[in-house]
Specification:
mainly beta, seven-stranded mixed β-sheet, about 45% strand
């Protein structure tokens, strides 16, 4: 089991930027595929971004964030990142990182919550208009 701790959330004006971090408590971080999901009030949790295991060479994004958000990983620091730019009020949500032991490189796998074994507690992102 991997413990995941997100940080970096906060309040930002529309058009601004934030970088979220997710620290993982494992020495085998590179063996996990990693994902970012979010949940807005009254809505279901949804896929945001995912990186394949090892180098994260395969990256996938929800259409709603493509071109604005960038996920990356630093395996030496056991940390996953989500750089968010040109934020919109509709990006307001609790953001969660998740880890998966499934060695898939396909978006249809990595965008499914059921693929992930471990989840962080979430960090709130609020974008004001």
């Amino acid at each position: 089991q991997v413990q995941l701790v997100e940080s970096g959330g906060g309040l930002v004006q529309a058009g601004g930027s934030l970088r979220l971090s997710c620290a993982a408590s494992t020495r085998t971080f590179s063996s996990y595929a990693m994902g970012w999901f979010r949940q807005a009030p009254g809505k279901a949790r949804e896929f945001v971004a995912a990186l394949s295991w090892k180098s994260g060479a395969n990256s996938y994004y929800a259409d709603s964030v493509k071109g604005r958000f960038t996920a990356s990983r630093d395996n030496a620091k056991n940390t996953l990142y989500l750089q968010m730019s040109r934020l919109k009020p509709e990006d307001t949500a609790v953001y969660y990182c998740a880890a998966s032991t499934v060695a898939s490189i396909f978006k249809e796998d990595l965008e499914r919550m059921s693929m992930y074994d471990d989840w962080g507690q979430g960090t709130q992102v609020t974008v004001s208009s």
